[in-house]
Hints:
The chain is mostly helical. It is about 80% helix and about 0% strand.
Amino acid sequence: MTKKRTDWLNAAVIILTFLLILLTAQVYNPMIKKTMVAIFGGLSLLIQLVQFRNGGLKLQKIVLFVLTVAAMVMMFIVFSKPPEY
């Protein structure tokens, strides 16, 4: 994989991870939040898997993958609870 493509994929993962965390916090509806987590997190994980396939397993990539999955699981758990008023 070329350096330019690797940089582009790294930037995409970073942007999707920020959207996963920050944009979902701005939405009130829990169903929309879950959908956003699934879309942004899924795309982020997909890009990370492409990087694993092309660039090998490096510790930094593995840690980012595990943290992304953990964030998605925790967000699904939190968004599944009914809102408290």
